[in-house]
Amino acid sequence: MPRNEPSLIPTNVDFERGGKQFGHLAVPHSRNESAWGSLLVPIVCIRNGEGPTILFTAGNHGDEYEGQVALHKLARELSPDDVSGRVIIMPALNLPAVRGAARISPIDGGNMNRSFPGHPRGTLTQRVAHFVTVELLPRADIVVDMHSGGKSLDFVPSAIMHDLDDRKRFDTTLAALKAFGAPVSLILKELDSIGMLDTEAEEMGKIFISTELGGAGTMSPRSVAIAETGVRNLLRHFGVLPGEPSSETPTRMMDTPDGAFVKSEVNGIYEPFYALGDEVKAGEPLGQIHDFERPEMEAVQAFAPIDGMLFCRHVAGLTTRGDSLAVIAVDRAE
Ligand SMILES: [Zn+2]
Asked: Which of 96, 127, 131, 249 would be a feasible disulfide site paired with 7, CB 3.0-4.6 Å?
């Protein structure tokens, strides 16, 4: 089993050493332009004294930017003297995807967040996933994987956790989710959890938080600020940095009940009727899809399945049958 095999990727970072180290994983990448070349995937380790280990990752999908920016800034700004414990940062987890401004790796077609636990002798994407599985997750107490919507989706900025059977871990994770302080704190039912970093970390019993901080392949000053505040709030919440978490706005606790996902029935141009964050009612049309080759055809409407808030929406003008057009979130009864 890959989980029991050591990683074959060398790194110049010593996770046991104190202080701040900027280093990389050197993933062998032999190709036409560089026979003995390597992909140098950045990694940062900041350690001082006693305390928990927090692993922060971003660039799991290359076209999701708030987490990447927040983690680059955190890596440069954190002083080891301020830290109690260890902070490990990988801001460009799928580096070829980051270089290509793409969700998945243009080199091997690997979707990092469907590649876990990875494989020590697999593709570049599988090898990096495997390094995280065997070298980083076992060292971490808390894992924070930062996503946004990428080029095809846009989200109301949110921190996310999954419903967990283990009540103690659920409560600990929920407290961290609230501490992050995003406008929405969401308990999400995944559409497809196989191969996700989330699943691997949760199966190891780690505290796991994810985010969806914006999207459309870009970012805003506000969404970056939410990301930066959130990572520092988590460090304070777990005592790695001194002080208390604080946030400008109160967080709204929400979840995604069954039927929250709306799929496109047809191919065409999607005309949205609502903006992100709008409240919608069950049965109302959320938008309509025009057949761009047959103007005589009536547009096909997509309906809200439940009452709630438009939490996520498809941003590309063009849509294909089977695409997620919208996700509706509802306030959580506590
Ligand atoms: Zn993502």
From this structure: 131
Are 287 and 304 within 8 A, CB to CB? no
pLDDT recorded at residue 189: 77
**What is the rounded distance in angstroms from the CA atom of residue 185 to the CA atom of residue 165?**
19
Contacts of 71 (CB under 8 A, 6+ apart): 56, 57, 58, 89, 90, 91, 146, 231
**DSSP code for 99:** H
Phi-psi region of 268 (alpha: psi -120 to 50; beta: other; left: phi over 0): left
Amino acid of residue 186? L
Ranges of residues in the chain with a pLDDT under 70 are 334
Side-chain half-sphere of 266: how many Cα atoms within 13 Å?
18
Residue 84 Cα to chain centre, angstroms? 25
Look at residue 247 in the predicted model and tell me its pLDDT.
79
CA 11 – ligand 1 centroid, Å: 25
3-class secondary-structure state, position 134 = helix
Task: Tell how strand 142-147 and strand 207-212 pair up.
Answer: parallel
Q: How far is the CA of 275 from the centre of ligand 1 (A)?
A: 21
pTM for the predicted model, two decimal places = 0.96
